[in-house]
Design a protein that fits this description.
By secondary structure, the protein is mainly α. It has helices at 3-12, 18-31, 39-54, 59-78, 81-85, 103-112.
Length: 124
């Protein structure tokens, strides 16, 4: 895993000038050849990809970010349970999120996503 390239990419995320889109494309190309399996790096890369989709400099970057998000989701699915525990509460696909939610929200989640949602009652 090229942590240096990821750090470089994260540093360039909020730059918006003529060279920044090209730099992001170049680093994304390099990182697209990487299988991110370290949980914290997966989380950082995920944040960057979402940022690219929310604040795109070009349609090409949006498409690359979508492709990379799909790849990232596949990597998340393959993580061991012990690795997933390190990124619980992150909101990443295939990870757990715990909280006290309203009855109406829980009801809606169970109705809308019965196979993806499970409930833990009286957890301590």
């Amino acid at each position: 895993m090229n942590e240096k390239k990821l750090t470089e990419l994260l540093a360039s995320a909020q730059n918006f000038n003529g060279a920044s889109a090209s730099k992001k494309r170049q680093v994304l190309d390099d990182l697209s050849q990487t299988n991110f399996m370290h949980p914290k790096l997966l989380e950082k890369y995920h944040h960057f990809l979402l940022f690219c989709m929310a604040y795109p400099e070009s349609q090409e970057l949006v498409e690359r970010a979508k492709t990379e998000l799909d790849k990232l989701t596949k990597n998340l699915k393959r993580l061991k349970i012990s690795q997933k525990r390190k990124i619980e509460q992150s909101g990443l696909a295939y990870t757990s999120t715990y909280g006290a939610y309203s009855y109406s929200l829980v009801y809606w989640l169970i109705e809308a996503y019965p196979k993806q949602v499970s409930l833990l009652w009286n957890c301590k």
